[in-house]
Write a structure and sequence with these properties.
Length: about 350
């Protein structure tokens, strides 16, 4: 018996809507304009998938919400599938959207690599670097460093994340990181020391006008002390010819941000120990005074570290920036040229991972 289309559908249980889904979508003409529009939609979709928020994606891309919404809808129409689930409360990816996002990431990475190949050929790195930096470093060396690099490479741009604690930022969230730590945690990243600084105990003239400056470390026990979260808490140790003296301090405030501690010290709230690099301007202009300079403070060393992923094929822009940073600090400290490499952390067996250049900086 010859089956008509309608009888065939009825026989196998297909409704008209099912056959409509099976009907192939008309293929749009492959013109340069269509390809560029699709690529733009892919970039926008990838940002939406990353943020899971249309408004935040629009903000990061510097475009309107309506453009983001329309681009994702156009991409879904082109593919004939739903990529994003939208509700009034949240945005999520469909299963197909998850798969498509992974392929989009691969595609966009390849496109960036192609751009960098051209930039490398003409000797001009281009693109955007994701930089994470501690609040201490962002208020000291970083602005000068970025300004100097941007003057040399005007096609580069930066996305900056500021943190008070290294645990607040994940390695996947940055291309390069600047951290000022007393003790570097185990890491699978390449870790290069750039500079060293020491802590100094400081107070403001207003505070010292109310409370006489401590003449010995032991007198700190009777003073108001402000603690940054990464500072040794409850006691400070000093060393002299007679040995080590542990002084129990009485903190009246303990906060995570060194910037807040510095402002509180300037306001006359109390005494604090902060990185000398962090307060060098205030020490120079007299808004803060150094205390107990004749006493040796134990555990006062800090190292400014440069951290980045040790991939076998480093992106041109990242390599250019790392080389610039290292040379910048080498010129600032020409005497520090010796290099010693030592493996630490959980990935000691991998030659491309952690490289701690201990002893001499750079």
């Amino acid at each position: 018996m010859e089956l008509t289309v309608s009888r065939w559908n009825a026989h196998y249980g297909f409704s008209p809507c099912h056959t409509a889904e099976l009907r192939p979508k008309p293929v749009s003409r492959c013109t340069p304009e269509n390809m560029l529009n699709q690529l733009a939609s892919i970039r926008i979709f990838a940002k939406v998938a990353e943020c899971l928020n249309f408004a935040e994606a629009a903000k990061q891309l510097g475009i309107s919400n309506s453009v983001v919404t329309r681009s994702v809808a156009t991409l879904e129409e082109h593919l004939g599938v739903r990529l994003v689930n939208r509700t009034t409360r949240r945005v999520s990816l469909t299963g197909t959207g998850e798969l498509y996002w992974k392929r989009c990431i691969e595609l966009l990475r390849q496109l960036n690599d192609m751009d960098e190949c051209i930039a490398s050929a003409v000797g001009e790195p281009a693109g955007s670097l994701r930089i994470a930096a501690s609040s201490l470093y962002t208020t000291t060396d970083l602005p000068e460093l970025l300004a100097a690099y941007r003057a040399r490479e005007p096609r580069m741009s930066f996305e900056l994340t500021v943190f008070d604690n290294m645990s607040d930022v994940a390695a996947s969230e940055f291309d390069v990181c600047f951290s000022a730590e007393r003790r570097l945690r185990d890491s699978s990243l390449v870790c290069r020391p750039l500079a060293q600084t020491r802590d100094v105990i400081v107070a403001s003239p207003d505070y010292l006008a109310r409370r006489p400056a401590p003449r010995t470390p032991g007198e700190l026990a009777s003073h108001d002390v402000l603690l940054a979260s990464d500072a040794p808490s409850r006691y400070w140790e000093f060393r002299d010819t007679h040995g080590t003296q542990r002084v129990v301090v009485q903190p009246i405030m303990n906060v995570q941000s060194p910037q807040v501690v510095k402002r509180a010290v300037q306001a006359g709230l109390g005494i604090a120990r902060l990185s000398r690099l962090f307060v060098r301007s205030e020490l120079a202009d007299g808004s803060l005074s150094a205390l107990l300079d004749d006493a040796t403070l134990c555990g006062d060393e800090r190292t400014v570290w440069l951290l980045y992923s040790g991939q076998p094929h480093m992106a041109v822009a990242l390599r250019s920036f790392v080389d610039f940073v290292v040379e910048h600090y080498r010129q600032k400290s020409p005497q520090n040229k010796a290099q010693e490499e030592e493996r630490v952390g959980p990935a000691q067996h991998r030659s491309s991972n952690t490289e701690l250049l201990l002893g001499e900086i750079l």
